[in-house]
Amino acid sequence: MGHRVVDGADDVGCIMDFLWAWLNAVNTRCIYYRLKPSKSDPDNLTMCPVLDFANHSPDRSNMSPGPTKADIWNVAPVPMIGEGLRFFSLDNTTIQENDEILLTYGPHSNKTLFVEYGFVIGTQGTTTVPQGEVDVQDIIEEKIAGGRYGYLVKDLLVAESYWGDWVMFSGPDHAQPSWRLIMTLRLHNLLATLDPATEDAIQLWRNVVAGKQERVSDGNERSCRESVLHTCEAIINRARRSLEVTVGHLHVQHHIRALWAE
């Protein structure tokens, strides 16, 4: 980057150059790509020239990435280089000459889009409704800690890189828990029904993590849905209490609700 790490002003300049390069040339242009044996490994990221010109659209995406053999079979990818990237046009979309190629970066809120990519989705004069995102870390941690095998749930989630970063997404048509939250609730509800917790039962959850089976059981899925509903109720009740306790002016409450709606 043209700077040698020394003390004083040069050191500051080097750090600023590094931050600029990371935020503008790396962080905003990385895409998810299976490089590690575990699909949840945080290092499953890569850069792809030309593809990084594709802009984000929450509702007008006209292509999507295809799964690799590593994703399909849940095996370690080809060492060092992985596999080639493949993209497919959507079944209900026709791409004409000179059309812009659009991707959906994910069900991200404007907060996440701004921090990670440096832009937001505007709504004025459009019908687009931004994606919402609610951090439920504290609610889920409390739920796990109060469970029969809370310590074991945490150890297993940490081992499989699923501990923390639990959010709920909401959009114009639906709301959904993040995949990390789904897997966490599946494990929590599985162990809540066991006495004692057996390795064979825990292996059912590991099979879902590895993609060997779709779900732990039908009963486990019903319990997870109930947990999601309880989590939503906790979010709503917490928001109402916060408004009543900390905000006294109705016009301020209106602005806060408008931000929450986004």
Write structural notes for this entry.
The chain is 45% helix and 10% strand. It has helices at 9-27, 69-73, 110-117, 137-145, 150-159, 179-192, 199-209, 218-246, 250-261; strands spanning 30-32, 45-47, 55-56, 63-65, 87-89, 102-103, 132-135, 167-170, 175-177. Strands 7-8-9 form a three-stranded antiparallel beta sheet. Residues 1-6 have low confidence and may be disordered.
Write a concise synopsis of the structure shown.
The protein is mostly helical. The protein has nine helices and nine strands.
Secondary structure blueprint with pairings:
Elements: H1 9-27, E1 30-32, E2 45-47, E3 55-56, E4 63-65, H2 69-73, E5 87-89, E6 102-103, H3 110-117, E7 132-135, H4 137-145, H5 150-159, E8 167-170, E9 175-177, H6 179-192, H7 199-209, H8 218-246, H9 250-261
Calculate the terminal CA-CA distance, rounded to whole Å: 39 Å
**Low-pLDDT residue intervals, each spanning 5 or more residues:** 1-6
Quote the beta fraction.
5-15%
Share of helical residues: 40-55%
Number of helices: 9
Main beta sheet = 3 strands, antiparallel
- Using DSSP, what is the number of strands? 9
Q: Tell me the radius of gyration.
A: 22 Å
Find the structural class using helix and strand composition: mainly alpha
Principal-axis shape: globular
Mean pLDDT: 80
The oligomerization state is single chain
SSE string, helix = H, strand = E?
HEEEEHEEHEHHEEHHHH
Strand order of the largest sheet: 7-8-9
